[in-house]
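Pilot study result, target chain (195 residues):
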Amino acid sequence: MFTGIIESIGTVQEIKKDKDNVHITIDSTITEQLKIDQSVAHNGICMTIVAIADSLYTVTAIGETIKKTNLSFLKVNDGINLERAMKLGDRLDGHIVQGHVDQVGTCILAEETNGSWYYTFEYDESIGNITIEKGSITVNGVSLTVVDSRKNEFSVAIIPYTYDHTNFNTFELGTKVNLEFDLIGKYISKLYSNK
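Predicted structure:
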């Protein structure tokens, strides 16, 4: 479980294909605090650390993860949002995030608005995911509040700190992002769709 509060931005150093799997090596300031078998959210994707060497660590994504996330767009030198799993007893500063990406969305608007930033993302509503105004959403692992919800799209506003300390500052029109919809909303939606 995660909170959606990004700790660090890692830099992708190597991407190595191995059959249907992809091994991703990342350079990060939090590597010295990590251990093998630990779960870390990478742009909101929960992946297990399989190797550590100096400031580098490696995770492996299976074919299913690659199909359902934006990992296929990842390149060497890309910045990636990192968050270690939350500890019991810590404050829950964001919202409950599983690290299980529901689908990939597309940035269709990115603009500065007098010191903050406003983004709109489009997604495939036919999969059954929903957003509501003032509800929670996770974009590339960042816990956010929906400020505007419409059919198959939603908007969020980003404060300068979030802009400076996540990879949101690289988003432009067409950027593919990982979306994890609100856990409670998913259960309620599923419950009503089964009636």
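One observation from the pilot: The longest helix spans residues 183-193. A full batch analysis is planned for the follow-on phase.
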